[in-house]
Amino acid sequence: QCDAEVGSRIKLPGLGCLAMDMFSKHDLGANLGVTLPVLAGVLCCLRDWRIIAGIRLLDEHRLSGSRSSALLEYGDSQQKRMAYISRLIANGSTSYLMAQYRYLLAFVLLFSGIVGMAAGRYAAVAFVFGCATNILAGYIGMKIATFANVRTTHECGQSPTDGYRVAIRAGCMASFSLVSLGVANMYALIVSFRLLGHWEGDDMWVALGGFSFGVTSIGLFGRVGGGIFTKAADVGADISGKIDHGLLEDDFRNPACIADNVGDNVGGVVAKGADLFSSFAGAVCAALVIAGSTSDLQCDADGPLQGMLIDWTATIFPLLIASSSIVISILTKLIVDVRYKVRHVKDIELALRRLVVISTAAETPVVYGLARWCLPQRFAVSCDMREVTPLCCTISIWLGLWSGLAIGYVTDHFTSRRHRPVKEIASAHGVSAASGIIFGLAVGYLSCAVPAFCLGVIVLVAQTLVGPYGVALAALGMLSTMPLCLAIDAYDSIADNAAGIAEMSGMTADLMQLTDVLGTAGATGNGFTISSASLVSLALFHAFSLRVGDVDTKMGDHWYFTGLLLGATLPYAFSAIVMKSVGRAATDMAEECRRQFPRIIDCNLPPDYDRCIKISTEASLRDMGPAGLLAIGAPVAIGLLFGKKCMAGLLQGCLVSGVQMAISMINTGGAWDNAKKLVAELGEKDSQAHKNAVIGDLVGDPLKDVSGPSMNILMNLSAITSFVFGRVIGGWSNAAGGPFWLGG
């Protein structure tokens, strides 16, 4: 029988009872299956770094070829200007991160103590470890992006396809380093607890929750803080530059142009990496906790069912899935580079698509082989005596894997310039800005249908076949393409930076071809991210249920229904805080730019770039606190005041409301952005239609880059917070699951 204790605390079986040796021949293969891909990812990063570092900006020999005419026209002084602008961007990015990290240090010290009191010292140590991991990964990604941006510009002076190769190589470096670091640190945490013997009770599983809580907390501040920074600069620069003075997006006379390019790094590379990493950590944590809720041996009418914890290889199966994605991504990148070489600008978008499609196809047989090798032929993963086979687990992973690809293509349909929805918005902008905004809202609402259907099918099938463990595996399946999806996101930011450097340094307009094909890359990636986050949130809800004991989730229960209403409201309140922060910061930025423009244009004085960077930094640090307090404090407060039933309702209400809001906001903003680009592409750049489209894009920017993507973090953080503080919440609930102050 299952040995879980129903109540405020469950006793999860310790691995001290495992009849195995983690260094046996079979288990040694599993250990190598985790560590060797991590090593391969690190080696690929080092190789790519060496290649990119070999691009010297002031090399006369490289400038002597006929293909370097764009650079020869301006000579070395232009390259010096490129290097100077790049240095401004790098210094601004570093200064922002250092300022943010000072605030985060205080947060980590405070919450490590709180986590220690609520969940134990092991969870507190793991929390600090998770925070440090995400901070380090973000810093590495930012350094890679700011190192590669000017070299991408340099290579585009020869050919946009040469620039593409530098940017995608740097994007893969940022991505592979983050995923390798994440897998390595989670594996190190698990092995450390195993070797130190701290597997009794629920120490290990709560510690994993602490690690995920740390990763997700830093992800929240990275996503919200970085988003506020970049959109304050972006919207403020567009208002004062494009609308007021008719300047180009990255005109060097615009005081906010450097801050805008800094935002591409802190709001793109750092924020998106932290976002996806938090989903990955949450999925692995949920899978291991649910597997850990199984007793060592269960029986049914057909004989014994083996528990997941009987075998070390089966225990780390989720980590093996994650590590396999590194190898598949490396091989996919190699295949695309060799078999589908990018020779023309039009090939770039196709190459980016092939990266995701080929990696999805390649991962399909790999997960089946891993399941057959790692998992027992018949086993149980929960207390309901459900018999599970490796094929059942494989089907769950496949559903997540291919649904992620399908959701990406649906997002592309609603946000790409090639398809009807964006063309309708562009046409509506010819009438008025209001018409285009109305059409864009309709597109966003409509785009929710297919992703919601896909997620529903995943949950129905995975839950039926495997139970809650299947939902966690489906989330891992959807995240199996994370290395390349994150690489494309980082490539997007690096290419945007490269275009900005080119424009500010006076290079030809040919470089803009490199970024024109990226219209939907970022939006497609965001659609994939929110879908995986919703599955992770649901899996973490099951982990929370195991932590506090069975929770009655019937709609007729008044405590549960109250929690649903409060949870459904949470994404709206969170979005209101973020949107208002962006609006206030963008207003401050626009006013500062308007103050500087007369002396810049009339007196030919240089802009004060540092002042604009300071405005964005101060706004980001000022306003990320309330958002973080709401995301972390609301679940704990509701659970303590109204009990675990209300807490369960809050988690599910936040999930259902948040996923629809996120998809709608992301696709609405993406559609407005590409409608603006379509109007400009049709030769109407100085027309009223283009001005209307710019207004739509300004409204959509914070939706698609801040509020929408932040829903991922909100859902995951609410769920993992509830799990980590589950013992306290369960203890403050009465026997019926209501608040303690009612008694009974």
UniProtKB/TrEMBL annotation:
Membrane topology label: Multi-pass membrane protein
Keyword line: Ion transport, Magnesium, Membrane, Translocase, Transmembrane, Transmembrane helix, Transport
InterPro entries listed in its UniProt record: PPase-energised_H-pump
Entry GO MF terms: diphosphate hydrolysis-driven proton transmembrane transporter activity; inorganic diphosphate phosphatase activity
Domain of life: Eukaryota
Entry EC number(s): 7.1.3.1
Annotated transmembrane regions: 28-46, 101-119, 125-145, 166-192, 204-222, 276-295, 315-336, 388-411, 431-462, 528-546, 558-579, 624-642
Transmembrane helix in keyword set: yes
Location(s), subcellular: Endomembrane system
GO cellular-component term (any): membrane
Identification of the protein by name: H(+)-exporting diphosphatase
Principal localisation: membrane
The keyword Hydrolase appears for this protein: no
Pfam families per the UniProt record, alphabetical: H_PPase (PF03030)
